[in-house]
Amino acid sequence: MVEEDIVTVTDPFGYFSLVPLKDEFLLEVSHIGFKTRLIPINSRTHEGFELTLVEGELELEEVSISANKERKVNLISAINLKLRPVNNAQELLRTIPGLFIAQHAGGGKAEQIFLRGFDIDHGTDIALSVDGLPVNMVSHAHGQGYSDLHFIIPETIEQVHFEKGPYYANKGNFNTAGFAAYQTKKSLDKNMVKLEAGAFGTFRTVGMVNLLAEKMQEKQQHAYLAGEFFRSDGYFESPQNFKRMNFLGKYHGKVGKESWLTATVSNFYSRDYIKQWL
Q: pTM of the predicted model, to two decimals?
C-alpha cells in the first residue's frame, strides 16, 4: 500500500498546520533558495514548534511554459517596467494593452488618455489609484476626474494591476472604461542612484536608499526614501524651463504575529517658466 503525502503551505506570516494520518511521520520543509529539512515528528508530543531554514544554492528544474488563451493578462510586474524605461509614472499607462496617452501641454499637465474607443480626457472614465488611494479628482476646474500621475517616481512602482471594462464596484465611479491600480514597492533590494541626460536641456536624477539596517530588515522591518529631480526645456520654440521634484518615504513592517503596518509620505512640486519674446 502506498502511503499518502499531505501537503500544506504557510500563510504570509509563516504559520502552517496539518492533520497527520498517523502519530509518527517525517516532515519535509522546503523553499526556493533554501536547503530542504527533514524532521521526524511525533504528533503526540509536538503540538506546536518553530523551525528555520538555511540558505542554499538556487537550482531550478526544467520548466515548461504554455499559453492559455482563456487567461487574461491584467498585471504589469516590475520586470515589465524595467524593460520599458520611462521618464514619469504617467508613461507607465502605455504598458496597458489598448491604452494610449498623448501630451499636449508640456510635462506639467496630466496626459490625454484613450482606451477602447473612449476619449477619457485626463481621467474622466478610468479609475486610477496608488496603493489603494484614488488619484482622480472628483471636482477639478479642468474636468471631472482629472488625474495627474507625475507625483509618482517610476522606479518605486512594483506592479500595475488593470482591467478593461465598465463598472467594477470596488473601484469607484470613474471606471467607465476600466481602471489601473499602481502598487509601490514595500522594500528595496539595494540602494540606487541614476543620472540621465538628453536633448532639449533634459536632465533627470533619481535616488533610492534604505533607511534601516540589515538586522532590522531580517526582522521584516523596511523603510526607504526615494527622490527624483527632472528638468527640460522641451521641444518648443520658447524654452519651457520645466522643473519637477518628487519625494517618497515608505515604511512597511511586521507588527505583532499577524499584522503589518504600512505608512507612506510623499511630496510633489513642479513649475515651468516660458519666456515670451515680442
A: 0.69
